[in-house]
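User: C-alpha cells for this one?
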Amino acid sequence: MTNEKILVLDFGGQYNQLIARRVRECNVYSEVHPYTMTLEQIREMNPKGIIFTGGPNSVYDEASPRYSREIFSLGIPVMGICYGSQLIAYLEGGSVASAPVSEYGHTDIEVDDPEDLLMYGVSRHTVAWMSHTDYISVLPEGFHVTAHSEVCPVAAMACPERKIYATQFHPEVMHTPEGKTMLHNFVYRICGCKGEWKMDSFAADTIRALKEKIGSGIGVLASDNGSKGNLIVTATDDAVKAGAHAGKIIKEAAALVGGGGGGRPNMAQAGGKKAAGIPDALARAVDLAKGQLV
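Assistant:
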C-alpha cells in the first residue's frame, strides 16, 4: 500500500469528509483528523500535504479553534479552505474581520493569477461556492491575491515559496465546477503526489493487514457502495468471550480503515447471542474512532 497521504485537519467544517473524498478521487489516500492533532503526530504521519477545513467560528475570537504557527515550518504544503484560509492569514500576521457584505451561494470569481499552481487550468472567470461572514481584510506578508470576487478582495491567496495556499470559497463542493481542478493541482502540482492509491486495492490490503495484526477467529468485510463504505467485523465465540480482546478487534479495525469519524463499523458475530458480550462502551468508542470509509 502506498504511503502517500493528505491530512485533512478538521476545524469543525461540515464538509470535512467531503474534502477527504475529493482527494481520494484523485487517487491519493486522505485521512481526517481533529485540529487537536499534535505536531509530533503529524510528523509521524508524514503526509504529503495538509488541508485546513472550514468551520463556523471567527478566528479572532479567543475561543475559536486554532493551530500552532509551527505547522508551517514542517516543510509540508498547506491549503486552507474558508475558515482554514482565514486561519492561515491570522496566524501569518494578516487581518481577518467581519465582512461588510457576507457571501453565500454561487459567486462569480475572477482569477488574478492564472499561472498560480493552485489556479492552473482554471478559467479566468469562474464560479465558486461561498459561505462566509468574515473575510481576509489585510494579506499576510509574503502572500499575494490569486482570485477575488466583487465583494471579497481575497477569494484566494498564495505564498508559493512556502507552498501555502488558501481559498475563501469551497472547492470541494459540486457547486464549484472547477474545484476538482484546484484540488487536483494541490495534490499533484503542489504536493507532488504520484496518485498510486486505489479504493479496490485499499480494501484488499486492509483486510489482509487486519488478519495479520489480529489473527485467526476474525472475519473482515470492507465494502464501498460509491458513497459510504462499511466495515463488518465478525468474531468467533472464543474471540468475543474476552471483552478486552473484542475491543482490540474493533479498535484495530477502525484504526486501519481510517478516514475520520462520522460513523461506526458494523459488527456481527458468528454465534449470534455471543455478540452481546461486547460492551456498549466499546461500540461508543468506535463512534469516536476512525470508523468508516467515506
